[in-house]
Design goal:
Layout lengths: L1 E5 L2 E3 L5 E8 L8 E6 L6 E6 L6 E3 L7 E6 L4 E6 L8 E7 L2 E2 L3 E5 L2
Parallel strand pairs: 2-11
Antiparallel strand pairs: 1-3, 3-8, 4-5, 4-9, 5-6, 7-8, 9-10, 9-11
């Protein structure tokens, strides 16, 4: 099983980034997928979840209205569109599904 994130980087406050998570080694379309993040000195927190069909989502209060989780089951990929980014969104972002974690990708929001 492989779960690999991409798309992170440095962005200014108010900017946008789209994270991607490509999964392989399991039947992607059967499983809910999640994005977590962990800031320095903080516990890992759930940011967004999407069900297997892609028609039900949930978000942490801190990102509601700014982040959008989506998936493409034909491409075995889940996305996290992040808009109106704030410095407090700075963290390592992790993809999680079927019990497997990605390696994480850094998102830094700074001017």
């Amino acid at each position: 099983v492989h779960v690999v994130e991409s798309g992170g980087g440095l962005v200014q406050p108010g900017g946008s980034l789209r994270l991607s998570c490509a999964a392989s080694g399991f039947t992607f379309s059967r499983y809910a997928m999640n994005w977590y993040r962990q800031a320095p000195g903080m516990e890992r927190e759930l940011v967004a979840s999407i069900n297997s069909a892609g028609d039900s989502t949930n978000y942490a209060d801190s990102v509601k209205g700014r982040f959008t989780i989506s998936r493409d089951n034909a491409k075995n990929t889940v996305y996290l569109q992040m808009n109106s980014l704030k410095p407090e969104d700075t963290a390592v972002y992790y993809c999680f599904g079927r019990g497997y974690w990605g390696q994480g990708i850094q998102v830094t929001v700074s001017s």
